[in-house]
Design a protein that fits this description.
Elements: E1 13-15, E2 17-20, E3 35-38, E4 41-44, E5 48-49, E6 55-56, E7 82-84, E8 90-96, E9 107-113, E10 135-141, E11 144-150, E12 155-159, E13 167-171, E14 178-182, E15 185-189, E16 195-199, E17 207-213, E18 221-229, E19 235-242, E20 256-261, E21 267-271, E22 280-282, E23 288-290, E24 294-301, E25 307-314, E26 346-348
Parallel strand pairs: 1-17, 2-21
Antiparallel strand pairs: 3-4, 5-6, 7-8, 8-9, 10-11, 11-12, 12-13, 14-15, 15-16, 16-17, 18-19, 19-20, 20-21, 22-23, 24-25, 25-26
């Protein structure tokens, strides 16, 4: 790991530096740190592709992944972490909401499956009390692997097994958290991805590690971060992105963004924005769906730290046309979710590993 064991005592205020898309790369930064610049060409890590290694290339998605929570149940869910235990079982921590609502979570469902695309059994474990938009990270304490859920409201929940029991140990330092654990310290960014905080303990105190000021030339905003460190020690953040002025042709609307850093302090972004994932998903039953929005991305890595799957929250009903023509007043593509049966997990299939 590149950071070592230093203790962070001050904030770094730095601009995120734009990296222009070029036909020939000059450094790994031109490859979005998702590949190696070799002889002027980016050699991309699978499943990344494109001139700047900025686009995720997926195989056809299993049809069982169209909805990881039973679509016959009218409640909405809105994505959460998927974690694999030492026995190979997949655990899904999925916030559930009242029918027709995406506010005020009713708790976090805990489902298990033998395959990441399901089907998931939600009857084995009790519902976990907690807020919406949970983040997740494992960490080591006294030589033992521990598990932590970070719901938007309430305390950080910790257990020594994915089976539970979950105990609150400290307040979540920021909304919609995306945490990681590295070299004995916790790091987290939040909803609009403008800062990284750090602490030695889940109970704090939380200090500013870096400020992220993005020269965002794409119209709209970023939210819903997922942060990770790759096998070469580089930092990455993938976001949902949206523009509320986009009302129809939703398949062409702003959807995602990617930022990257060699040290978690100085952040970069390819300009113009290269979106890591897009609206249309092809399934192995021969169907496809162009989603108005795909939010709260969670990336899944195998035991070799290779990215293999991405799960997202979705409006399961409205497609490319959007809902503006059938609603009273203007409704952005990203906001059709508030009128539809939506939020239930959708998984964007196996990558090309």
């Amino acid at each position: 790991q590149k950071m070592g064991q230093r203790r962070i005592m001050c904030a770094y205020v730095l601009a995120v530096l734009p990296v222009a898309i070029a036909t020939a790369c000059e450094s790994d930064l031109n490859c979005s740190l998702n590949g190696i610049c070799t002889g002027g060409t980016c050699a991309c890590d699978k499943p990344w592709t494109g001139p700047s290694c900025g686009v995720l290339q997926y195989a056809v998605t299993p049809s069982t992944a169209k909805s990881l929570y039973p679509i016959s149940v009218p409640n909405n869910t809105w994505n959460g972490p998927i974690v694999q235990d030492e026995n190979g079982t997949f655990h899904l921590f999925d916030p559930i909401y009242a029918v027709g609502s995406l506010g005020g979570s009713l708790g976090i469902l805990h489902g298990v499956a033998n395959q990441i695309e399901g089907p998931y059994n939600f009857d084995k474990y009790p519902r976990i009390a907690g807020g919406h938009n949970p983040g997740f990270t494992t960490f080591v304490e006294d030589g033992k692997t521990m598990y932590s859920l970070w719901p938007d409201a309430g305390g950080i929940l910790v257990a020594d097994s994915l089976d539970g029991t979950w105990s609150s140990v400290g307040a979540v330092p920021a909304g919609n958290p995306a945490p990681i654990f590295l070299n004995g310290s916790f790091y987290v960014t939040s909803q609009h991805t403008d800062e990284v905080l750090t602490a030695k303990s889940l109970s704090g105190p939380w200090l500013s590690y870096s400020k992220i000021t993005v020269p965002w030339t794409t119209r709209g905003r970023r939210e819903d971060p997922f942060m990770w460190i790759d096998r070469r020690g580089n930092w990455h953040i993938v976001n949902h992105a949206y523009d509320t002025s986009q009302l129809d042709h939703c398949g062409n609307s702003t959807l995602s963004a990617h930022q990257f850093s060699e040290d978690g302090i100085t952040w970069h972004m390819v300009e113009p924005n290269v979106e890591p994932y897009s609206h249309t998903v092809n399934f192995d039953d021969g169907t496809s769906h162009t989603y108005t929005t795909l939010e709260r991305p969670f990336l899944f890595f195998n035991e070799n730290r290779e990215l293999t799957h991405i799960s997202v929250a979705a409006d399961l009903v409205t497609e490319d046309a959007g809902c503006n023509s059938i609603s009273n007043g203007e409704v952005a593509c990203t906001n059709c979710k508030y009128r539809d049966h939506c939020g239930t997990f959708t998984l964007l299939g196996r990558t090309g590993i």
